[in-house]
């Protein structure tokens, strides 16, 4: 996000008139670019993260916590900040900053990609820490007397409620003035024309039917009547559902934070392989990183942000969602689970019907593109463009703007991205939740990266039927899914087998290994990574293995239940709060105390034995002062 273009935005009515022209041109651009890059090689392994931050104001004298809707000014201040040139805030990788869709969020990535050397892995956490310091240094100057801080928080508990946010024109207002402040979608959204056009056109295309219906956690005193906050849905039309919070505007769904990872394949075939191998991991990483159990001021029966953003960004019309005609019905939203595998060797596993643009498919076949990848591309072309500039409406195949307009708004759980500039074929992994500390963030990033390295080096194969992945996705966001759900997973992860064996396993068994049903032993993802690490020769003077072991121990302990997920820790914090009335409601006071604790954890200020468990101490002892929920 954060890219701004100059020009005249077309209305939704004019976008619809020009959709065929845009898609025809985008297809020409795709075929030209594909022919140009399909055989290129990129021998240097590169990867990076995109980490999202929420900007939160803690007013300790008033006992309040608010989101600060000021990302445009913060990014400008970051670019010109002394912290960017301060040696205390620098490392070999640097930082890039951009605004996110919600005005209270910014995104950072390394200024240059990480590589595959041992030293690169050693410096990931330091780079994340420096980025956090850069942002906090800028936030510290916004208003004296308050603590404006950045949190890698998957969801803000009271987002969208009356008085929960501070717009940019009220940054100096007292907390008492904010309690009755009513805001609309334009206040929540980043003030970029493209962002606001995308948000509005998502709603227009869905006939304003897009909404997240979030099941409320049933506590002993919960009153689960139909509930909707009219401030978040001023135009109505969404409907009620018993026992649910119904959140309408896409910006409140899109205003949740993730940790995404993008890695480059050495060529087109390797990138397709990585895409397909990561596809079965998309639901597994949701409960493993679960960090969002509260929405709109209520404890929910979900532990993750995924369903919220999937539902609020769903621009399918009611007919496209519900039609009995499989050639017309679109079974998955624009933001959602992956539509299919992209490698020809895995095409038989695409056992979930999904429509594709037949005309696009035919032209891609004529252009020499293999049927499986042509179908994958044809599926992307069923989506309409969400924004257009009048001045850029007419392009030729040497441009790529219309193509990127189509591809960049297909927000699937894993994305295969075409080369741009000096960047090759890339795979973007999108289902991980933001974590409170840089240690946790680094642990999950390196876990996924090492899994891909082990997959390539050891010839591992995790693909399973797509229908099984979809079933896993449906379970992944549920409350306590990490302990209470089983997930279909491949137990013979080798390419040299005659038959794929799939068994239902807990997250603990998938990560740490164990005996699945029918006596089949699965080695576990962490043990497989350890085997791969045993193959490496360079250990940077013995520093690499202990650090990576600390990361892997955290992943193992989260999977086994020895260390709680952030979602589990947040739930227990709420339930044990003295002001909680066991009615599922997270009040302003509870929200402030929770945000204060999250800030303390993020900044390493909780260090007493009462704050963390012994298991947590054991895992983090090699790392010193790092503290995370346990």
Keywords:
630 residues; alpha+beta; 3-stranded mixed β-sheet; 23 helices; 18 strands; 12% strand
> What is the count of β-strands?
18
The chain-level structural class is alpha+beta
**What coarse outline follows from CA principal-axis ratios?**
globular
Q: What integer is the average pLDDT?
A: 87
Helicity, as a percent range: 25-40%
Sketch the major β-sheet.
9 strands, mixed
Output the radius of gyration.
24 Å
How much of the residues is beta strand, in percent?
5-15%
Termini Cα gap: 33 Å
**H/I helix tally:** 23
Residue stretches low in confidence (pLDDT < 50, at least 5 long) are 229-238, 607-630
Report on this model:
The chain is an alpha+beta fold and 630 residues long. The protein is built from 23 helices and 18 strands. Strands 1, 2, 3, 4, 5, 6, 10, 13 and 14 form a nine-stranded mixed sheet that branches. It has a three-stranded mixed sheet with strand order 7-9-8. Strands 11-12 form a two-stranded antiparallel sheet. A hairpin with an 8-residue loop joins strand 13 and strand 14. It is globular and about 65 Å long.
Indicate the topology.
Layout: H1 12-37, E1 47-59, E2 64-69, H2 71-79, E3 95-99, E4 105-110, H3 118-139, E5 147-151, E6 165-167, H4 175-178, H5 185-188, H6 193-205, E7 212-215, E8 227-228, E9 244-247, H7 250-254, E10 259-264, H8 268-278, H9 281-288, E11 294-295, E12 298-299, H10 306-312, H11 318-322, H12 358-366, H13 371-380, H14 401-407, E13 414-417, E14 426-429, H15 438-458, H16 466-476, H17 481-484, E15 487-490, E16 502-505, H18 507-512, E17 514-515, E18 521-522, H19 525-535, H20 544-560, H21 566-575, H22 588-602, H23 614-620
Parallel strand pairs: 2-6, 8-9
Antiparallel strand pairs: 1-2, 1-4, 1-5, 1-10, 3-4, 7-9, 10-14, 11-12, 13-14, 15-16, 17-18
């Amino acid at each position: 996000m954060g890219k701004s273009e100059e020009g005249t935005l077309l209305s939704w009515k004019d976008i619809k008139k020009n959709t065929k022209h845009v898609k025809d041109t985008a297809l020409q651009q795709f075929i030209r670019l594909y022919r140009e890059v399909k055989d290129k090689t990129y021998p240097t392994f590169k990867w990076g993260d995109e980490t999202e931050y929420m900007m939160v104001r803690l007013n300790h004298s008033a006992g309040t916590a608010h989101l600060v809707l000021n990302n445009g000014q913060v990014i400008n201040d970051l670019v010109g900040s002394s912290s960017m040139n301060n040696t205390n805030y620098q490392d070999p990788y640097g930082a890039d900053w951009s605004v996110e869709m919600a005005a209270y969020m910014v995104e950072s990535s390394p200024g240059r990609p990480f590589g595959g050397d041992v030293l690169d892995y050693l410096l990931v956490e330091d780079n994340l820490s420096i980025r956090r310091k850069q942002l906090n240094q800028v936030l510290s100057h916004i208003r004296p007397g308050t603590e404006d801080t950045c949190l890698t928080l998957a969801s803000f508990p009271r987002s969208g409620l009356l008085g929960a946010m501070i717009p940019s024109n009220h940054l100096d207002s007292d907390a008492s003035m904010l309690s009755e402040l009513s805001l609309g979608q334009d206040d929540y959204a980043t003030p970029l024309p493209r962002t606001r056009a995308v948000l509005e056109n998502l709603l227009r295309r869905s006939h304003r039917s897009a909404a997240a219906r979030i099941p409320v956690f049933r506590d002993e005193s919960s009153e689960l009547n139909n509930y909707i906050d009219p401030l978040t849905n001023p135009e109505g039309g969404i409907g009620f559902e018993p026992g649910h919070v119904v959140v309408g505007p896409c910006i409140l769904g899109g205003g949740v934070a993730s940790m995404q990872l993008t890695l480059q394949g050495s060529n087109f075939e390797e990138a397709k392989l990585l895409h397909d191998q990561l596809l079965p991991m998309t639901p597994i990483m949701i409960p493993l990183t679960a960090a969002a159990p509260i929405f709109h001021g209520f404890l929910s029966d979900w532990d993750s942000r995924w369903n919220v953003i999937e539902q609020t960004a769903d621009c399918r019309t009611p007919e496209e969602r519900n039609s009995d005609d499989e050639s017309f019905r679109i079974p998955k939203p624009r933001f959602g689970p992956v539509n299919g595998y992209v490698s020809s060797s895995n095409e038989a596993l695409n056992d979930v019907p999904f429509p594709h643009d037949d005309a696009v498919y035919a032209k891609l076949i004529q252009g020499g593109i293999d049927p499986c990848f042509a179908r994958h591309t044809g599926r992307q072309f069923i989506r309409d463009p969400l924004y257009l500039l009048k001045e850029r409406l007419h392009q030729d195949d040497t441009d790529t703007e219309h193509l990127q307009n189509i591809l960049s708004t297909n927000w699937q759980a894993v994305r295969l991205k075409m080369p741009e500039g000096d960047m090759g074929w890339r795979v973007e992994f999108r289902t991980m939740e933001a974590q409170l500390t840089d240690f946790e963030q680094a642990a999950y990033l390196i876990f996924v990266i090492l899994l891909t390295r082990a997959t390539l080096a050891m010839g591992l194969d995790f693909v399973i039927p797509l229908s099984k992945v979809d079933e896993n996705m449906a379970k992944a966001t549920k409350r306590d899914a990490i302990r209470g759900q089983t997930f279909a997973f491949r137990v013979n992860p080798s390419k040299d087998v005659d038959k794929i064996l799939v068994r239902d396993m807990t997250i603990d068994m998938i990560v740490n290994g164990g005996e699945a049903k029918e006596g089949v032993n699965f080695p576990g993802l962490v043990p497989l990574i350890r085997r791969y690490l045993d193959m490496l020769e360079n250990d940077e003077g013995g520093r690499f293995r202990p650090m990576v072991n600390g990361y892997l121990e955290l992943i193992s302990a989260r999977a086994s239940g020895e260390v709680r997920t952030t979602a589990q820790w947040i739930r227990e914090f709420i339930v044990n709060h003295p002001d909680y009335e066991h009615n599922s409601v997270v009040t302003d006071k509870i929200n402030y105390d929770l945000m204060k604790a999250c800030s303390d954890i993020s900044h390493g200020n909780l260090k007493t034995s009462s704050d963390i468990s012994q298991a947590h101490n054991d895992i983090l002892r090699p790392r010193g002062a790092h503290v995370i929920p346990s």
